[in-house]
Design a protein that fits this description.
With about 260 residues, the chain is an all-alpha fold. It contains 10 helices and 2 strands, in the order αααββααααααα.
Length: about 260
């Protein structure tokens, strides 16, 4: 009898726990939706938001909900009050300006890419350093290097991860372009810049290939074979056009589009 009651209590406790977690998740989701709406309202009114429409679309599609959930109300202090007399901007304004600034930075490097919103969302969501939540004022020159470094990481994080995963299968192709993923140091700016240059050139040479998203999306067990096949196509096409790649690299150096 006691055993039966014990089993019933355990079953009831599991139901209670499940309902608690579900209710907690619902409350969290509701809070995120409210914060999301507030941020979108701020975005509609904020001056000098260059990519307002894309920024709102990225926020509205839910891809940044993890960041929005963590966004607090701490104000971002500004050293100079010549432009903003109150001496601070809100966390929502900073959040929006970082997204907008990253989009500008991305477009300067990848001007020919299609499916931009999807790819930019993928890059932003690889932001392991939570750059979007930074309280270092975006337009303070003191932090220029910080933002550029983290923008670059956001761009190449998934590409680097996939290169590590595919290095055995694609070792011959990697060897031809002297790509050695295991030797890359993501704390070294030269290594990061080299990866971005390669990624941009792969995109440029394969700009009409639908599978470019595989360069920006982290591979997993479910998509491994599909992404490996896409990488094989992309790198094969790149190597087949290597003479043109070298000419393109010369053009980039001449027009200061190569990252150093």
């Amino acid at each position: 009898m006691d055993v039966v009651k014990s089993k019933e209590r355990d079953k009831m406790q599991k139901i209670i726990n499940k309902n608690y977690y579900q209710e907690n998740n619902n409350r969290t989701r509701y809070k995120v939706i409210l914060k999301q709406k507030k941020i979108i309202n701020v975005a509609r009114k904020l001056n000098n938001l260059e990519h307002r429409i894309m920024t709102i679309e990225i926020i509205n599609d839910g891809s940044l909900d993890n960041f929005i959930e963590l966004l607090n109300h701490e104000k971002v202090k500004i050293n100079s009050t010549s432009l903003i007399k109150k001496g601070y901007i809100t966390s929502e304004e900073q959040f929006l300006r970082i997204i907008d600034n990253f989009i500008t930075y991305f477009l300067n490097i990848f001007p020919t890419l299609d499916r931009l919103k999807v790819i930019i969302s993928l890059c932003i969501n690889s932001d392991n350093n939570m750059t979007l939540l930074s309280k270092d004022y975006l337009y303070d020159n003191t932090y220029i290097d910080y933002y550029i470094y983290n923008y670059n990481l956001m761009i190449i994080n998934n590409f680097y991860y996939n290169a590590i995963k595919f290095q055995d299968e694609l070792k011959d192709k990697f060897k031809q372009i002297k790509l050695e993923p295991k030797k890359i140091n993501l704390k070294n700016r030269d290594d990061i810049n080299s990866l971005i240059n390669l990624l941009e050139e792969l995109c440029f040479i394969n700009k009409n290939h639908y599978g470019l998203f595989s360069l920006f999306t982290k591979v997993n067990d479910d998509n491994y074979n599909l992404y490996l096949r896409e990488w094989e196509i992309i790198f094969s096409n790149f190597l087949d056009n290597i003479d043109f790649v070298h000419d393109y690299q010369k053009f980039k150096r001449k027009t200061n589009r190569m990252l150093y």
